[in-house]
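To the wet lab folks,

You asked to see what we're planning to order before we commit. Fair enough. Below is the target structure as C-alpha cells, and below that is the sequence we designed to fit it. If anything looks off to you, flag it before the synthesis order goes out.
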C-alpha cells in the first residue's frame, strides 16, 4: 500500500452522503486554537484528513500516510459530509481548519463539505502542501488557503514538493498565504528564491520543531533574518501550549 493510497470513487450520492477519509476531528469537545500562520491564536475546529501525496521525513503527522509504521484501519475512518457539518455546527467557534495529510487529494468531496460549512456560518482554512491546484468550486467567500511548500531540508525531494503550476494557481486565487517551515538561515535563502520565482506573498516563516525547547531555539536562529526580509513570523502555539498532543 502506498503512502497516499488511492482514494477510490464511491457511487454517486447526495451531498450530505459524500464521505471523506478522516484521521481526526477535534476542537468541539476539548477547545483549542489554530496554532500556526495568519490565524495563530484564533479559536478553531480541526478536520484532519488522512492520506498524503508526499513522504516528508520530518512530517509530524505520519499517522495520516506512513503505513509502514501505522495501520490505516486504526488511524482513519470514513465520515459523511452531513456528519462533519453537524459536528462543526455544534460549536460556536467560527473557524474550521481542514488539514492533513494533504486535504486536496480529496477535494472533489471537499466541495460539498465547504458548502455545508459556509452555509452554517463557518469560515474555512485549508492547510495544504501546495502541490495540488484547488478546484474552482473551492474559491468561495469565507475560504482561505495556508499553503506550505516543503523544502528539501524537510526531508523531501523538491522535484515532488514544488509544483509551479499549483503554486501559481494559489497565487492567482488571491486567497492564499505561503507558510514555510524553516530550520536554518540557509532555508530562508531558499524560501526567498521560491518566493521571487513564483511571486509568493505574503510569506510566513515557522520554526521547525516538535518541542517547546526546539521551537524556541530555532526561533532565535531565524528571527533576525526573517525580520530583515520583512516577512511574517509564526510560532507553533499548539506545541508550546499542549506539548504537541494529538487532538489539541
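Sequence we intend to order:
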Amino acid at each position: 500500500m502506498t503512502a497516499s493510497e488511492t482514494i477510490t470513487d464511491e457511487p454517486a450520492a447526495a451531498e450530505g452522503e459524500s464521505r471523506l477519509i478522516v484521521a481526526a476531528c477535534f476542537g468541539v469537545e476539548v477547545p483549542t486554537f489554530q496554532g500556526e500562520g495568519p490565524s495563530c491564536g484564533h479559536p478553531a475546529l480541526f478536520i484532519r484528513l488522512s492520506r498524503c501525496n508526499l513522504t516528508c521525513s520530518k512530517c509530524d503527522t505520519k499517522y495520516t500516510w506512513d503505513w509502514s509504521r501505522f495501520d490505516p484501519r486504526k488511524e482513519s475512518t470514513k465520515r459523511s459530509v452531513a456528519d462533519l457539518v453537524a459536528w462543526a455546527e455544534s460549536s460556536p467557534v467560527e473557524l474550521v481548519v481542514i488539514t492533513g495529510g494533504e486535504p486536496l487529494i480529496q477535494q472533489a468531496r471537499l466541495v460539498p463539505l465547504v458548502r455545508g460549512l459556509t452555509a452554517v456560518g463557518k469560515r474555512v482554512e485549508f492547510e495544504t502542501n501546495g502541490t495540488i491546484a484547488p478546484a474552482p468550486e473551492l474559491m468561495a467567500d469565507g475560504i482561505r488557503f495556508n499553503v506550505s511548500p516543503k523544502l528539501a531540508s524537510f526531508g523531501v525531494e523538491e522535484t515532488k514538493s514544488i509544483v509551479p503550476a499549483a503554486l501559481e494557481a494559489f497565487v492567482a486565487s488571491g486567497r492564499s498565504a505561503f507558510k514555510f517551515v524553516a530550520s536554518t538561515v540557509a532555508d530562508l535563502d531558499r524560501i526567498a528564491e521560491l518566493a521571487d520565482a513564483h511571486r509568493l506573498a505574503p510569506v510566513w516563516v515557522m520554526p521547525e520543531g516538535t518541542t517547546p525547547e526546539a521551537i524556541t531555539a530555532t526561533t532565535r536562529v531565524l528571527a533576525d533574518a526573517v525580520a530583515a526580509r520583512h516577512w511574517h513570523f509564526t510560532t507553533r502555539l499548539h506545541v508550546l501550549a499542549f506539548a504537541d498532543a494529538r487532538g489539541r
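Structural context that might help your review: The CA atoms of residues 20 and 106 lie 7 Å apart. The radius of gyration is 17 Å.

Thanks,
Computational group
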